[in-house]
## 1
Amino acid sequence: MSGGFSAVRVSERVWWVGAVDWSTRDFHGYLTSRGTTYNAYLIKAGKVTLVDTVKPPFLGEMMARISSVIPDGKVDCIISNHSEMDHSGSLAEAAKLLHPAKILASANGVKALQSHFHGAVEAAAVADGESLDLGGARATFIETKMIHWPDSMMTYLHDDRLLFSQDGFGMHLASGERFADELPGDVLLYEGAKYFANILMPLSPLIEKLLERVRKLNLPIEVIAPDHGPVWRRDVMRMPELYAAWAAQRPTRSAVVVFDTMWGSTDLMARAVAEGLAAGGSPARVCPLRASHRSDVATELLGAGALLVGSPTMNNQVFPTVADAMCYLEGLRPRNRLCAAFGSYGWSGEATKLLAAQLERMKMEKVCEPLRVNYVPDGSALAECRKLGETVAAKLRERCGA
Ligand code: FEO
């Protein structure tokens, strides 16, 4: 493929040569409502270096963008900051077309590329803190193990004061604009938070350590170039500051009410619980699972101090949609949350007990025993639901201050 796609200059020596995926709506279980980008970058110094590649269907688009700045298609080196397939999936094919003299990755990255490509990609390992001369420009590698995979690293280009931050500080957002300062702030904030909640929340303690480490390195950063979403060239500390706040997971006054229902009873209970929360001064983020994707629930939970889960009992189990959302949320390891379980049942009523046990496993602080209602809640049962909401709100008030 040639023509039609061109590179976008990001800094003196760096061009964006990635791809925009307008149509994807799934990233391993995460609803990417606004599509995404797979960002690859070309460093043009004395040598030409490609940083990361793109998802396989977009190889042609990347190659066309590379050709727009390097007509002879000669690339000396490829740096693979992260071997997840959205960044390395086209690496073997790209290497065949670009003939780089070397492909570099972290030590874990080399192993991961071997396991992905079984010899079709020969990469050499670079060490944490190692620097490389790219033909008059200097790059330093910063290992970021487990952010987002064990192989992950970032690359800092000293001459342009630019950090290739791989999955860090990114978001799933397809756009014609390449820079964050060209996009609406509320969209950046929502999609940045959604990305953090769904991809990085379980790694919060590591992210706090990484931010501290990068702060101590005292690198002047004028551009942050992530592997997804827009490039930050203004207000560059905005995302690192948000990451520090999100990773701290400090409790807030708001609460998430997530539920599903069979015949409307657990729905009624959820609505009464939400009334109680609001009456107690806690904004309730109500997520009926027929209308809310699990990844949107996770996003709401990032900014909430409590999780209240409602499920009917079906065949002695938690309702399947609730089990799915809870399995997903448990994996994201939210910290510092209060919790409660509620739901309606017909004859055995195990769901709320199962949920309470799961919430305990998730190390959430139980505010009260599970609240169960047989069949359809009457006025007195709904008053109990409202009371549950008020109790959680009072506890959140205690935790967060008035
Ligand atoms: Fe964008 Fe962890 O891959």
## 2
Amino acid sequence: MAIADIGSQVRTVGQRTVNHWIGGKLVASDAGRSGIVWDPATGQAQANVDFASPAEVDQAVEAAKQAFVEWRASALSRRAEVLFKLRELVDANRRKIAEMLTSEHGKTVPDAMGEVARGLENIEFACGIPNLLKGGFSEQASRGIDVYQIRQPLGVVAGITPFNFPAMVPMWMFPLAIACGNTFILKPSEKDPSVSLYLAELMKKAGLPDGVFNVVQGDNAVVDRLLEHPDVRAISFVGSTPVARSIYETGTRNGKRVQALGGAKNHMLVLPDADLAMAADAAVSAAFGSAGERCMSISVVVVVGAIADPLIAAIRERMSRIKVGPGMEEGIEMGPLITKEHRDRVASYVANASSEGATVAVDGRQDPACQRSGFFLGTSLLDHVEPGMRCYRDEIFGPVLSIVRADTYDRALRIINENPYGNGVAIFTRDGGAARQFQFDVDAGMVGVNVPIPVPVSYYSFGGWKASLFGDLHIYGPEGVQFYTRTKVVTSRWPAPETRKDPGTSKVDLGFPQSR
Ligand code: NAD
């Protein structure tokens, strides 16, 4: 099937096969290994996805290595031109990309449109590459000597991405990596791999030379080969914490630059003076959007003092109005989960909550959508949750919101800071001083003040602390430029013409160089 047809056929063709994209074209795998791509809304298999063999990974790395020679020498204006064209193509095909990812991921089309919009921001940021790569210049660092810094690409770099943002997270990586002059290999999630091929086709249409952007489909075996390949210089990973930790350890041991973003347990602190309706709206939107399958979802509300009962009542009232069903259907607010196994795992936290001492205030297993054949689960609310409980400790990654009640701000802060994750966090209050103190105190990489999902805009960088990120640099934005380049500092002397010659420029001096 032609890639251009993927958008229209992705929901209708039973035995479609999702291939690799190497050297500017589709490559069918002969590895003999594959996975199933489900339609989470119906519970039916909709395609097979090839799993690359080590030899196929090597083929992609070789294509990227060869393309690097020319691409790193390309003019910055040329790279910006390709990215501008890509921006236009993605913009023109927002709906198509959104429907493609809804079909494989399950999220609603409006939510998928939001995902595409946030990915587009990253392409727009990368369009500014001539400005982003400007270095520094110091004239006359010593007499007749200038010093300047340049940024150069690393070579072949790889991105390994999770199922929950099949368009946006790859766009956190490849536009900037390529703009910096690298060539790129994407290993998307095997659960929703089709968008990656469509993006590859758009890159080609935008004028990107073959081999600069490649896609290898597959599972952990493909990742292992990328991790050990000597020509892969850097790895950007986004996924769960155990995998992120292991990729960081193996990648750095193998001499690669690695940024590995992991899982999360995001808290929303509600102080007694908060705007109750605003806090309830925010908690419900941030907990149940995309069925809770976001690394920035709010999974715990820590509520301080007497506002707890009215806040919980307001949250329950809003939960009762959420419409659960297929993401393609008009008016649906929450779609299915990604697989049956994941749905059942999420439901098990609700099933076990009361035996741990929590109260199941709303049981999502009772939602009528659970009668459908897809991987549906309604929204659940667990009250009186305590930090020792499994439902608090684990990243559930589904539509389950926990309420932890705290007597004081100090206790609430201690709970949040003792949590091993530190991705996003939010505070809801009308007191600017309290918000500022929280921003100072809290151990997390991204903080929202009366904003529940503080995903930084593309001209800042995204990343958590503690077990939510392994590596030094956050992803995309200015830190992304740092990650995908290395600096070179040039110290240069050009002797002046004979008539104005500085006698100090030419003599033997065995001392250590110093500024004069
Ligand atoms: P995952 O860790 O299972 O998979 C992520 C990627 O790693 C996929 O491409 C997968 O094929 C690959 N992979 C899986 N197991 C592997 C292994 N043992 N060795 C090597 N590679 C392996 O994550 P997921 O279920 O696709 O995504 C959900 C997770 O991602 C959640 O934990 C979520 O919090 C996290 N996430 C984090 C961020 C962030 O920015 N911090 C963003 C999105 C998702």
